[in-house]
Design a protein that fits this description.
Distance between the termini: 65 Å
Number of helices: 13
CATH architecture of the largest domain: 3-Layer(bba) Sandwich
Shape: globular
Number of domains: 3
Radius of gyration: 24 Å
Number of strands: 22
CATH topology of the largest domain: FAD/NAD(P)-binding domain
Structural class: alpha/beta
CATH class of the largest domain: Alpha Beta
Length: about 475
Amino acid sequence: MKYDVTVIGSGPGGYVAAIRCAQLGFKTAIVERYSVLGGTCLNVGCIPSKALLDSSEHYHNAHEKFTTHGIELKDLKVNMAQMIKRKNEVVQDNNKGVEFLMKKNKIDVYNGHGTFLNKNTIEVRTKEGGVSTIETERTIIATGSKPIVPANFNYDKKRVITSTEALNIDKVPGSVLIIGGGVIGLELGSVWARLGTTVHVVEYMDRIIAGMDADCSRELMKSLKNLGMQFHLRHAVTEVTPSKTKVKVAAQSRDDVSKMLNWDVDYCLVAIGRRPYTDNLGLENVGITLDEKGRIPVNEHLETAVPGIYAIGDVIKGAMLAHKAEEEGVFVAEVMAGQKPHIHYHLIPGVVYTWPEVAAVGYTEEQLKEMGIPYKPGKFPFRALGRARASMDIDGMVKVLAHKDTDEILGVHIVGARAADMIAEGVALMEFRASAEDAARMSHAHPTYTEAFKEAALAATANRPIHV
């Protein structure tokens, strides 16, 4: 079969790219090595983890807060099997949704592993050994990423696990150790902590979510400590030894190499990052060479060194985020159609879906200091917010960073209830290069969480917040 465009990978970047290509009139195919569409995000990443985060938050609120709200329950318990069942149903519904979108847009789906035979020919091989061949004028590589697991961590998928296996543990663990204080580890750690698991987090750096603003790190760690999570910063894991029922983990202090910590836990979750997934793509057959981090180099049009072959999402440089991949998928489709699309990478928000949530866009305070850019910070605590008081979600803050001279908003950092939704206001304002004064003068409905954004903007303009 011949196609104008073939997309390899059906995650958020891949299927969105395919849909936009079809909308623009390209005869389009999509290749997916697994039996279901949606990639890591939909099947073993964003969607199932959020389903478990929501379920565990409901339990935690019932256990810790319902009595205060005047709601009394008896014999409250966790039905982990039902929690996993609901999570799977959420995933399956989304799978069906993507399948429907492929049919609606007349996109041909090929299930199997795609490999380049040459620039315009892709072989698709199924697990059963079936082989089909696609002829294509252009190709978009959107194969995503896989968890990084060093060999000495003895990853056995039973006791030493990644996020993939963690999503299917059907009994509440007594104890879990998480290697890595980043987004994935903290989200899953918070799920278990809410359900009563003893959770240890070992982080090599001196703070969690180290890529985000330091105030966000401090606020989140304070909240997670209140949840019962235990943190061991500036430690390096030196040994991971699984047995049939337990895992022994040892870690060494970076400040005192003679100081060792040892644990005997039910599970060890390795969450130290992800690597681009380019295995057996046949890139050598078309002349594409990976960079030092295993990524596919692309130009400003996201085109590889081979004309007509593009790459998006986790396989190229930049944050490994589903919404970044989606933007790139649309971008490439429109470039191929002769349009002039735009992506402002600096304004792609990052989110941590713990509770409170963490969301950020633009520069951190540390980055502004490092670059020597004069700025004005404005902060407002959630505990001073009427809506947060009403919902008992008083942890967190909103921080607005504005240029000291021009008042242009340079960064927005939020820790608190619905931060993931609130950050869109910051993105919109920064896309139009608004000032903190602009944000401060916008009417925000009362009572809402977004009033905290207005107050932080007021604090940044002339240190004049109203409610603190």
